[in-house]
Specification:
- By secondary structure, the chain is mainly α.
- It is built from four helices and no strands.
- The longest helix has 23 residues.
């Protein structure tokens, strides 16, 4: 993830299940929390937010798909890939 990205615990946020996930950052980070009820109010008061939410969903879905494609490559293919779905190519080293 990089500056400005939106992060959620998917199952917890959408399904309202208790989560054991946690956020660990490598540097000082400012986080803003949005409760799911606040999201519902935002949608009701500002219907145009639905479009923003759709665009965010599409963006992160595409990122997830790109990471999945990368996982299917062998080590050499990952190293030579020009399409790095992660912010820094050295993050692939853990996959080798």
């Amino acid at each position: 993830m990089s500056d400005g990205d939106v992060i959620i615990a998917i199952e917890s946020f959408f399904m309202q299940h208790r989560s054991r996930e946690r956020l660990i950052t490598l540097e000082k980070t400012e986080c803003i929390a949005l409760h799911v009820e606040d999201l519902h109010i935002l949608r009701e008061k500002h219907p145009s937010f639905n479009f923003v939410e759709l665009m965010l969903t599409r963006h992160y879905y595409q990122q997830a798909f790109n990471r999945t494609k990368c996982l299917r490559k062998d080590a050499k293919g990952k190293y030579q890939s020009k399409d790095h779905p992660l912010p820094h190519p050295f993050m692939y080293l853990a996959a080798f």
